[in-house]
Structures are given as structure tokens and as C-alpha cells.
Known about the structure:
By secondary structure, the protein is of the alpha+beta class. The protein contains seven helices and 20 strands. It has three domains: 10-101, 2-Layer Sandwich (Uridine Diphospho-n-acetylenolpyruvylglucosamine Reductase, domain 2); 105-218, Uridine Diphospho-n-acetylenolpyruvylglucosamine Reductase, domain 3 (2-Layer Sandwich), CATH 3.30.465.10; 242-319, Uridine Diphospho-n-acetylenolpyruvylglucosamine Reductase, domain 1 (Alpha-Beta Complex). Strands 1-2-3-6-4 form a five-stranded mixed beta sheet, with no helix packed on it. Helix 2 (125-134) packs antiparallel against helix 4. It is globular. It starts with 9 loop residues before the first strand and ends in a 14-residue tail after the last strand.
Amino acid sequence: MTAVKPSSVRVEPSRGAAARLLDTNGVEISGVRGKLTANAPLAPLVWFKAGGAAEHLFEPADADDLAAFLRALDPATPVMALGLGSNLIVRDGGVPGVVIRLGKPFAKVVAGADHTLTCGGGASGILVSSTARDTGIGGLEFLRSIPGTVGGFVRMNGGAYGRETAEVLVSCDVILRSGEPRTLAASDLGYSYRHSKLPGGAVVVAATFRGHAADPANIQTEMDRIAASREASQPLRSKTGGSTFKNPAPEFSGGHKAWELVDKAGCRGLTRGEAQVSEKHCNFLLNTGAATSADIEDLGEDVRRKVKEATGVELEWEIQRVGLSADAAPTKVGNA
Length: 336
């Protein structure tokens, strides 16, 4: 791994005082080659455009930089990875510890042998599926429909249109919370519906997917079909977080999908503040103006309650909810 160079530290100005970021010896961390920002607003980085700040936001220069940073970081400091922020509610009190965001150095996609693609953890689904098309690799078209990054697909077993990541993943490279790099096979991740057993605090820096030989024109046709279907059925041009609730197991829901249960409970168009259940697709929540994250999350809980009362089915959140509520947070996020 590359050594940390103290002369290359980049610490961005903070908004107000933030707790010092300490290493394992209680000494303030410096020397990262990436960008380290204290009290970094997260609302601009998530699709709902709501929520508080990260106590610290770290955008590593490369995998070595990330590994060195995590090795040095006090193990008691919480760490969370952030992708495109498309499946996330950041609570209004912000996120303590460190949020790690993988930028351009992690957004590369390279075709390999046996119809494989090796993708950086920050690469988008559109980039992965487009590269697959250009190199004649079929079977990855569904990734075009998931508004996220490779790291999120791997962690959450992202899927759509009857396919999921577990079907195409060969292996992934992660940096554990300890800073140790490790390669994990798909079979190591214990995949289930929208869930993996990836260790907490681990960051996916790369993944290898395998498809099959296909005609690029046919791949493009399937991608176009998926794009048209999403445009017709989902509120893509709104401030939203994607699918809000997991589809329940058929034996508990009578075969109904989450959106059907939400609709049956009379929640289509339901509001709380400036948060609304989409009328176009009622498994989507919207920020119609200046909704707080509390408005959005509380609306989701309203929906869960109403669905439970109307159908007996308890919906499970698919959207990740992170951070502190406004009343639980310090006056300034990260104050010592």
C-alpha cells in the first residue's frame, strides 16, 4: 500500500467547529492524498436533496489512500460509504464519523476475458451497462435501470426487472474498516433479497461481473426497453429515493408487490409536510419542495402503519436511513 504523505494533505474549510479526526494513537489525522472535508453538507449529494451534514467527508485519491486512511483512523470512529445517494435518507441531524465517497478514480470500467467487466466501486450502472454493450457482453442490461454505483449494487444486492447483482457478480475488492484489502467471491457475501453479509464499515472499491456474448444491437434494444419502462412508470425527474419498500415475500403478501399494498391502503398521493407518496408510482416517496428528511421518513412510517392496518403486511424499508435526527444531534454536527 502507498504510504501516507503528510505534505499532501487536503483539508477543506468546514462549517463551524468539528471534532478532530483522530488516529489510533489519539493524534489528529493528516496526510491523506484525497479530499477531507469537515461538516460537509450531504443534501446536495443525495437524490432527496434533504438531510444534514457529514461530520467528515473523505474522497480518497485511490484504494491505497483509502486503506491507509482507514488503518490510521481510530477504530471507534463510525464509517459509512456513499454512492450516488439514490437509495438513502440522510437524517436532519447529520452523520457522525466519516462518510466515504468514491469519485472519478473509482469510476472506471474495463472489459476482460470470458465476458467479464472489472468495475470501480464508484462506477454507475449506466456506465457499466453501456460498456458491456460496447464490448458485446449481454446480461448486464438491468444495471442500466438501477440509479446507483457498483459499491451499492454489491452491498445491497441491487436488482431490477427480474435480475439482481448476485446473478452476475464474480468477486469484489473491498477495504475493510481496519484498512485491510480483501477480495471476496460472490459466494462469500451471503446474498439474499436486497441484502448481503458484507462486513460493516467495509468499502467496495471494485467488482468483477460476468455476462455472456451478445450482439451490441440487441443489448441496446433491451436497454432502450428498460429505459422506456422506467420513464413511463417512475417519477424519474423528481427528488426521490427510488423504491422505498422491499417487495414482501409472496407467502405473506398474497403475491402483491409493495406498491400494490401501498395503493390498496389508500396511500397514493399521501403527504406529510412537503413529502408525498408519488401518484405515478406509489412505492416512491417525493420531496415536492423543501421537505425535511424527518418529513420523508415519517411519511414512510405513516405508509407502513396504514398498510399494516389495511392488509396485515408489515413493509420493510428498502431505502437506507442513516444519521441522527435533528433533536438527537449536537448543535453543530461533530462538536467535541
